[in-house]
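task queued by scheduler; priority normal; single chain, no ligands, no partner chains; default sampling; output format set to structure tokens
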Amino acid sequence: MSLHGKRKEIYKYEAPWTVYAMNWSVRPDKRFRLALGSFVEEYNNKVQIVGLEEESSEFVCRNTFDHPYPTTKIMWIPDTKGVYPDLLATSGDYLRIWRVSDTETRLECLLNNNKNSDFCAPLTSFDWNEVDPNLLVSVKSIDYEQTIFSIETDVTCYFTKCLSYVCVSLSQVYDIAFSRAGGGRDMFASVGADGSVRMFDLRHLEHSTIIYEDPQHHPLLRLCWNKQDPNYLATMAMDGMEVVILDVRVPCTPVARLNNHRACVNGIAWAPHSSCHICTAADDHQALIWDIQQMPRAIEDPILAYTAEGEINNVQWASTQPDWIAICYNNCLEILRV
């Protein structure tokens, strides 16, 4: 199957700079709204909030604000009911929380995970807990620390505090993500330079469990949990052309390898509504959707393929609109109906 020829099911936005970080809003009253982060190799970078005008079928920029350094990740508050303030988090030199309105976006607070200095090591990633939106976990790349931030918010006021330093990993940490296992609040995993996937529990932070190690000890760059079945997660190695699917009940041995890409994989996104569908994106310009329900039998080919006009560096599956996937390449954002 191919998406080519279905132009009404592909919408494109061109930013004034290379797009790297990107995330869908989950608020029910903000359909087809995304935040985009620039990748400019200097201090002055930007974040744009764009939305699709469904009547004109055109993306429009709602707001642009300055951001120090490129954003390594962007996330909207996981508030599907719209009861919290409209918040956006970005990572870079610090973890920043922004309040978004129809007319402006303002910095609400700046979170520093260094107790002894006003300076902060670069943050490679973070995750916002879907069960408890007052909880964020971040990782920084220099001294390998993973930090839990506790935030408190209601509809009128908002303030934050650093809850604790949770652990020090054995290597640089590149990505981190909460699991939906055990109620969805306490379990998370990280990947990093030593090629391992480590599981943590907020209730027992004195140790971690290694559930996978890359055979060649290649650094692992990304981690993504299955949205419907918390037993499964996906990861990928630096400069690798395959995605490894893991079952936490059978540690150390992948249950599937997705290896049809012909260049480095850059992004992974599980379907929000299905436990057996996952999208991968790579430097070969391809976004591929796979059906993995036949595991542990080998997964030979994707069920859907889309070829972009450039190397795809990010892919996000809309959690509240599961028919839509967003990809980024060069200075372009595209959303695709699947």
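post-processing summary
- The two ends are 10 Å apart (CA to CA).
- Residues 312 and 329 are 5 Å apart (CA to CA).
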